[in-house]
Amino acid sequence: MAVVGAGIVGMSAAHFLSRAGWQVTVYDTGVVASGATGSADGAVSVASKKPGPLMTLAVAAVKFYEHLIATGVLVDEYLPRSTFVVASDQEELAVLERHAGELEAADVAIRMLKGAALTQVIGAAAPSAIAAAEVQGEGHAVGYRVAERLRQLGGFAIRRNCRVSGFESTNGRITGLVTEHGTEPADAVLLATGIGSTHFLADAGLIRPRKGQLIVTDRAGADTPHFPGPLMSCRYLVSKGSQPAGAVAPSRSLGLVIDPLRTGQFLIGGSREDRDDRESADADVVAALLRDAVALSPSLAQLRVIRVFAGLRAATRDGMPIVGRVSGADNLWIATGFEGDGICLGPMMGRLCQQMICGEPPAQDISALDSARFGLTLATAA
Amino acid sequence: MSGPEVLVIGGGPAGVSAALELARAGIDVTLCEQGPRLGGAIHRQPDDPTQSVHVPQSHKRRWQALSDALAGSTVKVLCRHMFAGIEATGAVLLEDRIHGRLVTRRPAALVLAMGAIERVAPVPGWQLPGVVTVGGLQVMMKSTGRAPDGDVLIAGSGPLLVALAAQMASLGNAPVAVLERSPRLVSLRVVASLLRAPAYLREAAGYLLTLVRSGTLPQRGVCVTAIAPKDGRLSVTVRDRAGRERRLLVDRVALHDGLLPNSNGTTTGQHGPFIVRAGDCREVLGGTAALADGRLGAQAVLAHLGQTAPANKGPAAIMARERQAQAALNTLFDYSGRDPAQLPDETVICRCEGRTLGQLRSMLSADDPVSAREIKLNGRFGMGSCQGRFCAEWVASFVASQRNGTPPQPSEIVGSRWPVKPVPISAFVTLPPSSPSE
Ligand SMILES: Cc1cc2nc3c(=O)[nH]c(=O)nc-3n(C[C@H](O)[C@H](O)[C@H](O)COP(=O)(O)OP(=O)(O)OC[C@H]3O[C@@H](n4cnc5c(N)ncnc54)[C@H](O)[C@@H]3O)c2cc1C
Ligand SMILES: Cc1cc2nc3c(=O)[nH]c(=O)nc-3n(C[C@H](O)[C@H](O)[C@H](O)COP(=O)(O)OP(=O)(O)OC[C@H]3O[C@@H](n4cnc5c(N)ncnc54)[C@H](O)[C@@H]3O)c2cc1C
Fold this sequence. Notes:
The complex is a heterodimer. Chain A is an alpha/beta fold. Chain A has eight helices and 18 strands. Chain A folds into two domains: 2-39 and 144-206 and 318-374, FAD/NAD(P)-binding domain (3-Layer(bba) Sandwich), CATH 3.50.50; 80-136 and 208-316, 2-Layer Sandwich (D-Amino Acid Oxidase, Chain A, domain 2), CATH 3.30.9.10. The radius of gyration of chain A is 21 Å and the shape is elongated. Mean pLDDT of chain A is 91; it is low at 247-252. The two termini of chain B are 28 Å apart. Chain B folds into three domains: 5-117 and 261-307, 3-Layer(bba) Sandwich (FAD/NAD(P)-binding domain); 120-257, FAD/NAD(P)-binding domain, CATH 3.50.50; 340-414, Arc Repressor Mutant, subunit A (Orthogonal Bundle). Chain A binds chain B through residues 30-34, 38, 144-145, 148, 151-152, 154, 158, 160, 217-218, 277, 280-284, 286-288, 290-291, 293-294, 300-310, and chain B through 87-89, 91, 93, 102, 104, 269, 366, 368-369, 371, 373-374, 377-378, 384-385, 387, 417-419, 422-426, 428-429, 431, 433-434, 438.
């Protein structure tokens, strides 16, 4: 079994496939987690999901993280905590209330915070908030740490700096991978190539890069107030497309999330830009994000920026991930297009890919993600 | 003045000399220095002018000449302006520490003359409070005009050890000992090579004379092997050439293992200005070379801007002479430090994040060739405030010592992201938004 892509999806799939008896090799152009998985925040969260199948899958994905902790697959890579979706004015409040209603309809535990409860829980962190929804029972995981844990558990091989450019096939079955270091035999292939999937698909415009810029601060000082969990501005829901823009104009598509990290640092993000300049952050976007952050949490102004970075999310035409077969070969599968949700969904997707490839009934209904909706075919270049 | 603007970063001899040369050619030059005053490492000026540290006459004269020239030039000087990097669209970011704001510039060219960074080889206990760098202590003395109090031990390798010791002695608190790792003694050959750059010999002779008087001549072939806290002080284990160990109880330890160019990871990128490096920031060759290299840097900028600089072989000849002198001088020192593979597991390697050699070793134990990036992310080496500028070399050399194959490069750990140093969020939020059309 060849898994192409050592991001969180590929590493999880490799983990479960190897436990299901396959002899697995993971190939990556770069190293482990050098794609989106290594340049992301780690909200394992239902709070920001679009109502519908994605929200349902996210609920299951959060439970799957808990299951991985309970079974010892993950140790301390997952940190349970609430997310706080914050409204700062009446228009944002309308978005907040609509979204909270939809979360409740999906059986997500919500606590609406207003008045004294609001002041007590997030008043110090976000004094200008007029209301917040505490989305309970979710958590945080750092994508590259999850991938590292799965690497340490082992059971499969990793080939770094080994780009896969195409396949060799006979009678409609792939028999080998063409890599930059020669051809490698394979009985089955899973593409978990994130934004790199465009290379393998005939429909070149199906998956597009959506750049995100993130900011890391130094450690909070003694006078930085306690943040009970990540603060997510209502505008984030709009920028992500989880809620229609309506009255709230997306502020340059900057969906603000202020994430207090376990190290005492903050991760502040993230923009959503339809651009492909992967490794660079620009001062304009960073300053705009920080202005939004300080407007919500003035105490952050005392901290310093130690690092800024950018990552590329893989966004599909209809905003839903793609999981299933690629026509042109019987033994080729794909799992991609996780946009801003792959850290949350990744481990569960790894398990679902294993079930799909082994012909077992999937533990979740993923028909909404089926690649058949786009009639995927292999690019001639591959 | 109209025409292209050139920014020079760093107010040491290299930066000042580059700025002057550019201004003489009629270029619009701005010189940015992060500190409150120009001067750089060697000509750092005191906070209170009446409280100055003893420096050689030749240094004083040289700085006076530069200051006078600058005063009579068109160079615009911005002190307390820190170069924070080049962002994705090619704008140069400056943190204006006077007004607490961030400003952007789009110069045609950028001269980076940010000097050297000080190298310190890890030893167990080097992260303890009270352990400082020799250069850091010297900067503190030059700024305050006072020697540090208490018992100070100076150790490591390089000419800076002796310079600091002599300056402390003249200010009335000679160090308890100066330990130079290298056992090699000054040979006639070295003296002969240095005769071509006699300033070094005069400077060294002056320092050594002071140390003879205070009875603290450097002990050669002696190094620090561990530092531990004891009764509110520091217990330092030192080892001599014969392998004998003894302990010294002191208040402070100043370590130093040579200088490296302060490359800061800055790269031009697709949209950035034309960049040249000058002085210690390009090659660590000391003050005289820094002056000449500043002029060479300026000439490279002029050539890039299409101006033909007057043919002048002077600076290049000085550089060649100084390079030889430094090479001769360096034979007297041993910057290697202890082989990291021989250090105990509890030795801290990354001081920002408190990560140890044992933690690094455990990441490598599997038979999977983990990459530098994975070591950085998961081991948190180079993830702290300094972004790996002080530990990358040691992480890379340790990993290389533990396995075959392509050794990781320090640059893979440092990366080339901005900001090059932490910038306050309060400064960031002042950046005016660019026009929406962009
Ligand atoms: C700024 C930002 C913030 C985010 N925040 C969150 C968040 O809070 N919560 C959340 O759930 N998600 C978040 N995400 C999304 C998440 O990071 C991604 O959805 C997830 O990492 C996707 O994982 P992946 O394994 O599919 O892809 P990737 O991690 O991109 O992995 C794909 C791998 O395939 C390799 N590859 C590609 N082509 C080839 C080839 N031809 N041959 C060999 N190898 C190849 C690449 O090198 C790469 O390593 C964020 C993303 C970004 C950019
Ligand atoms: C700590 C130290 C002490 C030294 N002491 C001596 C000595 O006693 N005798 C001797 O002969 N040589 C000494 N040297 C050697 C010294 O390297 C040269 O003599 C000379 O100072 C080099 O000149 P330069 O202009 O290249 O760099 P420097 O003189 O180091 O000047 C660099 C300047 O750039 C500034 N800078 C750095 N980063 C930024 C930024 N991001 N933004 C804005 N400004 C920035 C610094 O504040 C500094 O003023 C010392 C070096 C060091 C590092």
